[in-house]
Amino acid sequence: MEDARQMVSSGSPLEPEIGFSRAVRVGSYVVVAGTAPIGDDGATVGPGDVYAQTVRCLDIAERALREAGAGMADVVRTRLMLTDVTRWKDAARAHGERFADIRPACTVMEVSRFIDPEWLVEVEIDAIS
Question: Which residues contact 99 (CB under 8 A, 6 or more apart)?
């Protein structure tokens, strides 16, 4: 029997434009797409502040996990993508606050840019629940 596919939206206007879901659950596997620091008003949260942007990304991702029936304790892998990897400690501090006891596999990488030049970080999460 095939597992049902559950799609979760965060309400981002980019989801229908690009054709993606914030998160997708199939069986016990939940993946959260690259999550940008977008506020409820559509503006970038914490311009210039990697820590604040990472916190916002994690807030959005955590909400998507919950909507998919998972939680932070179910996370097995994270990816922190930064436009300036020399600022990794700011992103790592926010990540460590959420995952100190969970300790998922984590990759930190530098990318050349994001869709919005104000975004300094995006976060991806994989969970099994």
Answer: 72, 75, 78, 106
Distance of alpha carbon 71 from alpha carbon 75, whole angstroms:
7
Cβ burial of 117 (10 Å; 0-12, 13-18, 19+) is: exposed
CB-CB contact of 50 with 91 (8 Å): yes
pLDDT at 87: 98
This prediction's pTM: 0.94
pLDDT at 2: 62
Measure the CA–CA gap between 65 and 75, rounded to whole angstroms.
9
Q: What average pLDDT does the structure give for the chain?
A: 95
> Could you count the other beta carbons within 10 Å of the beta carbon of residue 48?
9
Sheet holding 121-128, edge to edge: 5-8, 23-26, 29-35, 121-128, 75-82, 105-110
* CA–CA separation, 93 and 88 (whole Å): 9
Within 8 A by CB and 6+ apart from 3, the residues are: 26, 27
